[in-house]
Amino acid sequence: MSGMSSILNPVLNPLLNLNPFWVIFIVSIIVSIITTLIYKYTTDQKKLKELKKETKSCQEKLKLNSSNPEKSLQIQGEMMKLNVEYMKSSFKPMFFTIIPVLLFFGWLGANLAFIPLQPDVPFSINVTLMENVQAEISLILPSELSMNDEETKTAQINLGWQGIKGPAGQYDLILKNEETQEEQIISVLITEEQKYLDPLKELKSPTFKKIVVNQQKLLPFKGIVLLENIFWIGNFGWLGAYILFSLIFSTLLRKLLKIA
């Protein structure tokens, strides 16, 4: 998906100069406009409005007949049929919106899920080994990087190296099984820009199962007065922020355009 979403890079990458909050805000507006217009012009709005009107009428009848179980059951059956018909009529737009939504999701996930590794700010990596691995494991750094930790460690299921740092640039970190000489590489990007490489590398090898560069989750609402102190909002990542904005924008657009 990240490969597909890269087609959006020429258009959306300039937004990365903004605060992540505003990037997600703007992307959410764009996607909401696209999906709302597709929904409007690929559905029979007259039919949907009639179905909503009939459903509302049934709800009112249900209230009036709340003391009549037999009548209530009949009305509920009518409402179920109306809801099924409404869902069928609303299903078509999904085929048109799924691709743009996935593209934007891929772009957001590839660019706004983590805080980038900063120049000369220490970071760490964790390595998960295959079971029953017995060897010395070394982390070999390029000359530009330094590390406040031992280069070689005795194999355990989980190993970690701390205090890795260096100037801006893209680097290959090599993990080596000293017994079998097997090597695995994970690349890291150190930058002041909102860019990073995938911090997770899952492997199928005799020695290594998983390599993780420990990058902090990006919190778009951090630093936003009022919002950051609301626990369930303040801890949202890009996906939670996108869903919140999309719900608000889609609701407003539907009301503005009088969409059923």
Radius of gyration, Cα only, in angstroms? 26 Å
For the termini, the CA-CA separation is 32 Å
SSE run? HHHHHEEEEEEEEEHH
Beta-strand portion reads 15-25%
Return the structural class: alpha+beta
- Quick check: average pLDDT? 89
Largest sheet: 5 strands, antiparallel
Number of DSSP helical runs: 7
Shape: elongated
Structural features, described:
The structure is a single chain. The radius of gyration is 26 Å and the shape is elongated. The model has no long low-confidence stretch (mean pLDDT 89). The chain has seven helices and nine strands. A five-stranded antiparallel β-sheet has the order 3-5-1-9-8, with no helix packed on it. Strands 4-2-6-7 form a four-stranded antiparallel β-sheet, with no helix packed on it. With 260 residues, it is an alpha+beta fold. It folds into two domains: 138 residues, no CATH class; 91 residues, Immunoglobulin-like, CATH 2.60.40. α4 packs across α5.
What is shown here, in short?
The chain is α+β, with helices and mostly antiparallel strands. The protein contains 7 helices and 9 strands; from the N terminus they run H-H-H-H-H-E-E-E-E-E-E-E-E-E-H-H. Strand 6 and strand 7 form a beta hairpin.
Detail the topology: elements first, then pairings.
Blueprint: H1 2-5, H2 9-12, H3 20-42, H4 45-64, H5 69-111, E1 123-129, E2 136-140, E3 146-147, E4 152-154, E5 158-165, E6 169-177, E7 183-190, E8 200-202, E9 208-213, H6 231-234, H7 238-256
